[in-house]
Amino acid sequence: MTGIDNLVARMDLDQKIGQIHGVVPMDLVDQAKLSGPPAPTPELPTGFLYEIERLPLVRPHGVGHLSLGWQLSQDLEQLTRDIARFQEIARDLNPFGIGVLVHAEGVNGLVHPQGHQFPTAWGQAASWDPAISGMVGDTAGRQARSAGIHLLFSPVLDLARDLRWGRVHETYGEDPELVARMGIGFMRGVQGDDGESGILATGKHFLGYGTSLGALNQAATHLGRRELTDVHAEPFRRAIAEVGLSVVMNSYNEIDGIPAVANGWLLNDLLRGQLGFTGLVVSDYDSMAMLYNTYRTAPTPAHAAAQALGAGVDVELPSAPTSSGLRTVIEDGTLAEEVLDRAVTRVLEVKARLGLVPDVGPARPRTVPKAPEPAEARDRARVVATAGSTLLANDGILPLRPGGARIAVVGPAATEIRIHFGSYSSVADAEFPPAIYRIAASQAQGSPEVFPDLFQTKLPGIEPVFEEGARRLHPEAVTVLDAIRAIDPGVRHRALGSLTAGSPAIDAAVIDVDVVIAVVGERTGWVGNHTAGEGRTTADPVLPGNQPELIQALHAAGKRVVTVVVSGRPLLLEAVHDASAAMLLAALLGPVAGTVIADILYGVSEPGGRTPSTFPRHLGQLPMYHGHPVGSGYDHPTMPRHGYVDLRDSSPLYPFGHGLTYTSFATSIEGVRVEGDHVRILATVTNTGQRAGTAVVQLYARDEAATIVRPVRQLVDFARSHLAADATASLEFLVPLSRLAYTWPDGQRGLEAGDVTFLLGLSSADIRDEATVEVPTLVLT
């Protein structure tokens, strides 16, 4: 019997139940002191007073987890003290001195008013560089751990294949290889190379959450088990094998009629069985309660908890609406106590690894890492933002030259800070209190107690409040307009407002300029009037309002338009593309956005990004992604394409992996051979232009004959290479044969012997060379 087993055997039922659920700061509010919806104040930005000393009243038998822990204090130093005090009280609530797992969010940096903020995950993925997501993970992990936080609920490993879904920006895109590599990079940054940093990352959401019906949040996922196993589970499989992923969060969706939170095939057979996961499964917030109040698969909250634990979930979060009733279903025989013991054991194993279980855990005390200084974090943010900014189109107008042309800046995003932040950022989090207050005070329709209402309730006129909040949290941030003027002081600003093509005001505003920089985009967040974010699906994912018409009107006026699109997902941009001389995608770059955008437009920096998702031309093409099965989708290696008869072009507007630079490249395969259980591909890349630049060389594979229909192309590797003009670099790709594996008709996974063609290019649609090699049979155990 291990030390953990011994400990579990000594715990009574209530103590064990306490270890598998959480508490949130809101649970610590004395409701008797409230006379109505509290208004946010400078002293209490959330409007609520969290009383840590109330914990024994709230959880008399102990508690295992502190959810939303960053909300305890707006000051990081005070937060550190509050968490330490919370731990003292929690340890005293059980006779074993077991500490609490403190959770936070961190995919864009630590969510806290003083958290260092970065571009959103989709913007990080545009770098095609795991070192970039690793930089974000390292910064977030160090800052969180220094405050006493042990677990980050990041990264998101979902594949986002429908751009209507509001959470695309939280993901690393559409492709399992890119998502796996970027996610693993983030986890290594958080956990350290040896996984012993004292803080852990979480892989979420398991599984298929990014391909829900109609792209609606929490809706059903209609995918077969083979696609779930071979495609959507791949980032999780890789993270488990390569970085020892220790915590997984279930998704909200249901698959084949069974919600993920109660799906034994997903959590036991697939995750723990086929993928070899041995860690902790935590519920996404309130997903266990949804078994009772949404899906209605459970007659009572306690039965909901029994369903989830029986299927393989170990922890209910954020609080305890269902697991608090577990005693009832255990005593009546609905749930065996051994199932609870299994969950508690997994909780304690993770806690022991983090030093939260006395006499069980690390033999040596850990040194708490020093949080990065603001200057270091800001420098890192600029590197990340520059690497992920993607030049979508350029007829040669970029880079601009200071004083070289008469330039005007237009567009609603030119003078805004807020628009550059996504959900799970300090800025978006700070918007909850004023939004909740307005709803609770009946200034808007909806209920602050119901997430769909909270996320979708419109709050007219709240944008200035949100903008002021962003500027207060990030006084160092500058607008795109101000950053451009810092480089080119003669640039003019035209606040055009709502205008249409042919408007005399358009002609009058730009009559004396040669080039117009139009900065447009959509706002992303949780509450308010955002068009993207968690719970915010759009039926028509376009630039909001009359922004497309504005760009078309400028083009019709005879002006060359440089369009900057601020968005954390693909939008339908064909009309904007046709009216623009150049287009730059700025994927929610955070507080450094203005400076980075201006530097790229004027050639101070190079646009380093490549699209992590496919950009369709039309809504009817959704979902659209590059790795579609042979015989389906927009592309085919041997047959004519089957497209839409009412579209002039059925190909993507911008394909996966697309991105221009201020130079040009050539790349070719120099050799390919099978070596044991790998394929080695030798290649070269040459900068054929006049400026230094960074190539992102992409290696795809196509199985030429397989029992199972395979993708038209499968991304298997990629490499960034910075080259001076006329310089050439040698590249070597070592692709495991297991990377090409799939599930056979008999359920075994492996690779059948035969020809595989490797395709080398600069995007999924820009293939420069290919070579075919015969591979042996590979059977995976």
Name the descriptors.
29% helix; TIM Barrel; Immunoglobulin-like; Rossmann fold; 3 domains; seven-stranded parallel β-sheet; 17% strand; 25 strands; 24 helices; 781 residues; single chain; alpha/beta
Q: Topology, pairings included?
A:
Elements: H1 3-10, H2 13-19, E1 22-23, H3 55-58, E2 65-66, H4 76-92, E3 101-104, H5 121-125, H6 130-146, E4 151-152, H7 176-191, E5 200-206, H8 225-232, H9 234-243, E6 247-250, E7 254-255, E8 258-259, H10 264-274, E9 280-282, H11 287-293, H12 301-311, H13 326-331, H14 337-353, H15 374-388, E10 390-394, E11 407-410, H16 426-429, H17 432-440, H18 451-456, H19 463-473, H20 480-487, E12 492-493, H21 504-510, E13 515-521, H22 547-556, E14 560-566, H23 574-578, E15 582-586, H24 593-601, E16 665-675, E17 678-687, E18 693-703, E19 714-723, E20 728-736, E21 742-743, E22 749-751, E23 754-763, E24 766-775, E25 778-779
Parallel strand pairs: 1-2, 2-3, 3-4, 4-5, 5-6, 6-9, 11-12, 11-13, 13-14, 14-15
Antiparallel strand pairs: 7-8, 10-15, 16-17, 17-20, 18-19, 18-23, 21-22, 22-25, 23-24
Helix pairs in contact: 1-14, 2-14, 6-7, 6-15, 7-9, 11-12, 20-24
